[in-house]
Structures are given as structure tokens and as C-alpha cells.
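As a point of orientation, let us examine one representative protein, giving the amino acid sequence and C-alpha cells.
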Amino acid sequence: MQNKLTFFNSDRRYYYLIFAYIVLSFLLVFSYKSIGGYEERVENFLLNRAIGIVDDTSSKILDQIIFKNPNFIKTNLQDEALRAENEKRLSVLSNQDIKSIYVLYLNRGKYFFLFDIDKDEHTEVSEPFIPEHEQFFNQVVKEKQKRVFVQRGIEELSFTLLKPIVQNNKTVAILVIDYTENRLSSLLRVSVDFLSYFALILLFFLFFFLVYILYTHYNKYKVYRNPKTNTYNRVYITDNYDKINFKNYYVALADIDFFKRINNLYGQENGDKIIISVIKIMASFLDKSDIFIQYSGEEFLIFFSKENRTEEQIRTILERIRIAVERSTFTVDNEKTSLTISIGVLLHTEIEKSLQEVIHKADTALYESKHNGRNCISYFDISQTKRLYREKLKELIESDKLICYYQPIKDLVTKELHHYEALLRIEDGDNIIFPDKILPDLEDSYLYTYLTKRVIEYNIKKLREDENIKISINLSADDLINDSILAIFAQNSDLADRLYIEILENKSIDYNKVELSLQKLKLFGYKICIDDFGSGYSNLNHLLNLSIDYLKIDGSIIKEIHHDKKAYSLVKTFALFCQQNNIEVIAEFIDNQVVVDILKGFGVKYGQGWYFSKAVPYSELSKEDR
């Protein structure tokens, strides 16, 4: 109910629609109850149009009869010849649609025959006449206006025309023309019914059209809104991209710091609850004229109205938002946790050409905050040099610019291909963007996981297209404990014998969770490899705590083994350990035969590097290798 009230409060036009809705509802009910009265009016209207010629002709004949005869009634009562002549004149009106034509005169409120042109059943003069519908006769006498009425319940009659004969501003007689039940009356009835019910149906459809408008707008409103916070989502900005006048707003992009860790620690459902709490905190500082959009899971786009606000006031509001989030405590499963947010802001939106560019620059400022240690606010400097905006990166990924290059991993003894390692690349026009240029900016963001899924899906497609190829892909430890990523591997377990998983270096690993995920993957038949071992954050816990099939020694060590004793001893030790524990070793960055010979002496079985081949697109892979 609250959601519906908020919907109507969001736009005054909806109240006008509701008012129109109520009016139409009233008209619909009123019209239904009054359909009989409407039919009568429509009948009279159509009848008057249908008898137009007879009406005009009768008026001319009556003028001739009354012409210069101030005692019209008395003269015709006394002069039988004149009466016969006038009846002859009126007989001109007779046709197959007319049953009878006669003239009645009034005497003391009673009606008597004056003329009757019916020869078969001729009524004598002064014979009294009692009308079936006396009220219509009396109305014509009183108002001195013609009247047409339908003869309901009288056989052979359809409708009657009453025309007053007026002398000295007084109705002295009435011309009566009775029409028979014929083709004309049937057509008139059909026309009456059609027009009456057409009007009712039209009103009915207008009623439902208004209902449809409200229903459609409310459904779109629900699509645009998070029902738990009543804030907009990304669909809103997609559908209203051209309608938002960004020049009237200061634009900020905010992101919850390290939120991926919250999801990993407490699960996505609890993570969503925390996001809702953060949204409510931030929204409490906004005005009705501001626009708050949940741009992605933990990222928010805010349009601050410039009306009655200075740049300094916006800076103050943003700092209050940042502090409010920082000082808040969030309880999940009886555990308390705290969060911070980073914010990027573009103040001078009036000089920008598109909303897309505005968001790009706010996004650049946001990542300035990320690189400055997070939990801070950065403002876009219009003088700074251009760089790859993260928002542009999103667009490149979402528009299928993601590709993989493949580098072979070969048997050092036979030189035969074992499998290919898939290496991420992103196409930006004629330029190729390498992972080291993008992954640092994506760390701890939802886009990192999205990118991982796209890489997995890209290579699964290649495996299904080519039954002879084997591929290894790189995952972080965080990826391995992501249920949605594990679900992809489970759904494609028929490819497990051709799809290898390499675990990338990470700052910290929850060995219990990672090992649990690895065991699930191994049950499906996947082979696991530790990547870049010997550099960065790697340590022996990887070997002691995780169930792995391959160990890939980092190239920074491999390329030194032929002239560095420490590197030589280190690789030899790793190789011996792996042989004793049934782990195959892969050496990276091999660039000459001397290194190959040393590695073979250590018992290292596989290697990759420029000595064998550079990474190339799938289309350039050697057919012989495949």
C-alpha cells in the first residue's frame, strides 16, 4: 500500500488521471442507469431527420389552409366543401410509410376531429378523440412546438408526428401523422440501438483505457524501483536516458568499499540487507528533487538538484553521507560490522555534452577515491588528462568486446600440446587492452565477478564449438567461493576433462571455503592448478592445504634459473616436492632451450612461453596443435 501511495505522490499527473477515472466511473454508472432516456432522445433526433420532407411539405399545406382565414376552425366546421378541399390538400402527404393523417381541434381542453383523409375508416367531423399519449398532445399545445414520439405497444403504428396549428399565438388545432411499422422504423430502431450502445461501449473503453494507463505506469514504476527502499534502479536510467537533463544536477557516484568481502563472509542475502540499510542512510540526506539510483549491486548514482544549492552545500552533504555510513553499525547474524563508502563527483555538468560522459567522469573521480585509500570523496578535475574510465570498460564488456588469446602449454620432452591457457583481452577499436590495465581497478567490485563469468562463458562456447581443444582459465580464490560461478561449472561438467581451472594469486585465502569448493569441482572431474606460484602472495599453504593437480611456477623465477643459483635451487625444490606428492609442474615464461633442458633435468613436465608460441586469437591457432 505504501508503495502505491508513493507512486501517486511521485507525479501530480497521476492525481488528474485518478480524478478522470472517478468521473468516468460515475458517467459509466449513470449512463447505464439512464440508457432508456438516451435512447428516447436519439430516437427523436433520428425521427426528426427521417421525416424532414413530410414536415416541410405539411407546413406549406397548413399555410395554404389557414391563409387569410382568422376563423380557421369555425369556417371549416361550417363549410363541408372547404373541409373536403382541405382534406384533399392534406392527402398529398400520404405514402406507404404513413398510416393516417388527420387534424384535431381543441374545445375546452378536449380534442375533436376536423379533418381525416382516411377514406376507408373516415371519422366524421367533431367526433371526439381521446389520445393514447395525451401528455405529448398537451405538451405540443402548451409549447406550440412540433413533437415526434414513438408509439410503443400499439400494433401497426411506429411513431407519430404532432404539428401545432397556431393562430393569434394560441394552439387551435394539431396535425397528426401516424407512421406505420415498416422498413424505416426498423432501420431507425437499429440506428438508435447502435448509437446508444456505441456511446456506452465508447465510455466503457475510455474507462478501461485510463485503467490501462495507470496499470502500465505503475508496473513501469515497480520495474524502476527497489520496493524495499523506493529508490530507482539501473533500468530507470536506461529507459529515461534522453529525458534526464543532467545539466541541472551535480552528479555523484558512490561505491561501498570492499563489499565483495561482505558477500563472501555473510552471503549474498545478508549482503543485500546491508545494501538496503546503506541506501536508507544515504537517501535520508536527499531532497525530493534529487534522483537516487542503485546503479549496480553496491554502487549508487546520485543526481543532486542544483536548484537553491551551491557547490559548497553539495560538498557538505556528501561529507555528511560519508560520515553517516562510516559511523553506522550493521548487524548480520548477531555479528556487528562497519562499512565505508568512496564517492566520485562531477560538479560542472553544464559543460558536458552527454549523460554518458557525465557518468564517465564521476566514475573516474570515484576510482581516484579508491586509489587514494577509499573512504573519501574525490571531485573530477576538468584539467586532468584522459584515461580509461571504468564506465567505458563496462560498456566494452557488455557489448561483447571481450575476447581471449590462447597460449599453448606443451610437453617439454615431446613438444606435444597439452592444453591452452585462455588470456583475457578487451578490444577497444583497433586497440587491445591487457588485463594488467583493467583488473587492478576492478578489484573488490561487482564488475570483477561479472567479467569472470563472461570469460568462463566465452571459453565454454569455444569448447563446445571445438571438440579437440583443451583450455585452462584463471579464477581468483574469491571466484571459487562464488555460488553463481560454481553453478556455471556444475551446469557444464560434461566439459570437465577439457577445462582446467587455475587459481590466481590473492591477498588472502579462506582455505576452508576454497578447499570445499575445490572438492566440489574435483567431484565433477575438473583439474585444479595453482598459478604464479613463487611470487606475490603465494606461500606453501597453497600446497599443504589445497587439493591441486598442477603447480605453475611463476615466470619471474623460471627466467632466472640458468644464471641465478637461488632461482635454480628454488625451482628444483618445488619440482621435487611436486613429484613426491603427485602434482604436475608447469613452468612459465620459457624463452630458450637452455631453460627447457634445466627444467627437464628437474623432472618438470610442462612449459609455456614465447619459446613455443605467443598468445594469439583462437582463429590463429595452429591446426596441427589442435
Summary: Residues 264 and 481 are 7 Å apart (CA to CA).
